[in-house]
Write a structure and sequence with these properties.
This protein is mainly α. The chain is about 80% helix and about 0% strand. It is built from five helices and no strands. It has helices spanning about 1-10, 15-30, 35-60, 70-80, 90-110. The longest helix is centred in the middle third of the chain and has 27 residues, at about 35-60. It is extended and about 55 Å long. It starts with a helix and ends with a helix.
Length: about 120
């Protein structure tokens, strides 16, 4: 799969390929009544979610044998390296719910037309 992605990245450097993919995204967006930027956002989110799932699996495997104290220390180290968030919990929840609804809506439409 990685080699396929690399091939596409090399192809995407060509202007003609960028235009063809852009036209395809616009047509897809029209077909499912969404904005082209939302289609791109969806596939970016899909890729991020797959990466997060993979990282979570790796983390679960690496922490299976840790004691609760060691897990707590690991969590503290992770929290210290996490960027600071300048939004309230309520704002974050509202934004998360909105993004989940948007993701599910687009996912269902893409499944309906057979793209995913």
């Amino acid at each position: 799969m990685a080699s396929d992605v690399e091939k596409v990245i090399r192809l995407f450097q060509r202007r003609e390929t960028q235009e063809a993919v852009s036209e395809w995204i616009v047509q897809l967006a029209k077909k499912i009544h969404e904005r082209p930027e939302d289609i791109i956002w969806f596939f970016e989110e899909l890729r991020k979610r797959k990466e997060w799932d993979k990282k979570l699996e790796e983390l679960e495997k690496s922490t299976e044998d840790l004691s609760p104290e060691d897990l707590f220390e690991l969590a503290v180290k992770e929290a210290e390296s996490t960027p600071e968030i300048h939004k309230s919990t309520e704002e974050l929840l509202i934004e998360a719910r909105r993004n989940i609804r948007k993701f599910k809506r687009i996912e269902n439409k893409l499944k309906h037309v057979g793209v995913i």
